[in-house]
Amino acid sequence: FAGEIPDSLFKLCYKTKFVSLSHNNLSGSIPESITNCNNLIGFDLSYNGITGLLPRICDIPVLEFVSVRRNVLSGDVFEEI
């Protein structure tokens, strides 16, 4: 798998609990639609080429685990995290 993370991946994810897309040569930014995943407990997007700002993931109520290491993200991490 390579390329950008499609926005549609997170549009209908209301039952998804964990997403692991590490080591996939992904590029582009993390879609803002990830914040629609209210049951998401964790996601691993490590070891890709993801750029841009981290979406406001602190609004996901049950989120416990996030791994975005070895990417090229910019900006500040939200204080709530």
UniProtKB/TrEMBL annotation:
Keyword annotations of the record: Kinase, Receptor, Transferase
Signal peptide positions (record): none
Top-rank taxon: Eukaryota
Record GO terms (molecular function): kinase activity
Cross-referenced InterPro entries: Leu-rich_rpt, LRR-RLK, LRR_dom_sf
KW Nucleotide-binding (keyword) present: no
PANTHER family with a match to the protein in the record: LRR RECEPTOR-LIKE SERINE_THREONINE-PROTEIN KINASE FLS2 (PTHR48054:SF82), RECEPTOR KINASE-LIKE PROTEIN XA21 (PTHR48054)
Record-given protein name: Putative LRR receptor-like serine/threonine-protein kinase
Gene source species: Noccaea caerulescens
